[in-house]
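To fix ideas, we reproduce below one chain and its tokenised fold.
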Amino acid sequence: MPDFRLPDLGEGLTEGEIVGWLVAVGDRVTIDQPVVEVETAKAVVEVPCPFEGVVRARYGEPGEKLAVGAVLLSVGEPSSGPESEAESESAVSGSGNVLVGYGTSDPPRRRRAGRRAEPVPAGGGDGHAGAPKVISPLVRLLAREHGLALERIPGTGPGGVIRRADVERELGRSGRRIPLTGVRGAVARKLATSRREIPEATVWVDVDATGLVAARAAMPSVSLLGLLARFTVLGLRKFPELNSRVEGDEVVVLDEINLGFAAQTDRGLVVPVVHDAHTLTTSALAAKISELATSAREGRITPASLTGGTFTVNNYGVFGVDGSAAIINHPEAAILGIGRIADRPWVVDGQLAVRKVAELTLSFDHRVCDGGTAGGFLRFVADCVESPVGALAEL
């Protein structure tokens, strides 16, 4: 009866937290069928099983963290006795799928007849030192919904088991603890690294976005962020120093433009990445942004779509604010943002008029360029915003 172990889900991740099971003990699974949802430091992913057969045992409950390599479930065939079980193990088939760390590269191991794999008890004796003792999945769910770390809750049940009353007692205390784990923890570490390592500076400019709003109305399939992304790509072609990163004592100017964009989700802020954005048309770029944003909000985005960015854009105007000195998405060198577009007085041809005005801000790593380059890039993007038709016509 082969064991399916938690695979490395990308970029050296060492653990994952079970969000929910997609199969139950006794269910038949097919090769590469998703069997469990796991949250890593990058995203929530559905993990497929490389074996075909019947689920004989599951290991872990929602909210429990498992190390990479820990057994997720065991797959076998229905049997009436030890001998038939041993015979069925050789008939269990697998895909051998190891793409993106999924599946297992180890061949199914045969156990001696008469030995059965026992499910790990939920709480205690699960091979994870210090694991909280919880029996009820409802207790785990209650703690998870309120951001409580089970390992911090003393259990009053038999043998120290954490009961619902223990969780509710913690909820009744003043204040609320939100563990910096998963996506939230990964973002926190990246932002702290950015502030610690990058000597950043910020420049900004007000722009007349009346033409941008009109262009958006004429191109219903292209969002404002999609247009800003296109202008950003054009700007990076003219000022490639901003599409770079610092490695040791060198500035590495990158050829490809992998454009990240900030997206708010129920699990926190994430930055999906449009790879090779410089090869896409305006419509294709906008469509890819929309696709990735939807996947991120629904929790379906893959770790590969959250890595490899070289520059980030941010529409913080959706929060109703005018400006922001955004933190650079380490190890990138700059981040461009646009605030809300609002009616404001603006001088046009010497006359005061009411126009659609927004603020563009650029935070940049002062090691990769000086203020002249940063200002030149920002002014170029501002000109594109004020004359979008002309900028798009030059493509």
